[in-house]
Amino acid sequence: MVLLLLVCSPLLLALGFPALAAVMISLIANSTAVVFGAVGIPVLLGINAGLEGASVVDNYIAELGITYVEYFERIVIRAGIFNSIVGTLIPLFMVTCLTRYFGQRKSWGEGLAVWQFSLFAGLAFTIPSLAGRQPLESRDDKGYDRRSSCSKNIGEID
Predict the structure, then answer these.
(1) Sequential DSSP letters for 1-63
(2) In this predicted structure, what is the pLDDT of residue 20?
């Protein structure tokens, strides 16, 4: 997140945005990528490590009659859907915040007037994001990508 602020905010400042607006836009824009973060680390370490082995989770999974891997896949899919919905609306939220707090008339309406373009911008982000996600069915029982010619983890490479 710090890297985004160090790169994005100065660029917005150079384009003429007020300093607070540049930081606000940078932080709002960064909120969409947080769910999967750097190569899924928040999901793998945060959600997976927090749920795996918990007795409440194990009992719930037993009630559902599924494995832990299937349960974890359901969580990841739901997080992806939620991330896509939020990601689609983020550009509209950014524009309305900019017009409300930094516009000449300080109006929410000016930001909402460009809802079509904002929705298009959000879909331009989320559709490729959804299309680029690798289906979980393409992995073998060890989690390796079956489609990849290189199926070793970095730690296993000699």
Answers:
(1) -HHHHHHHHHHHHHTT--HHHHHHHHHHHHTGGGTTTTTTHIIIIIIIHHHTT-HHHHHHHHH
(2) 92
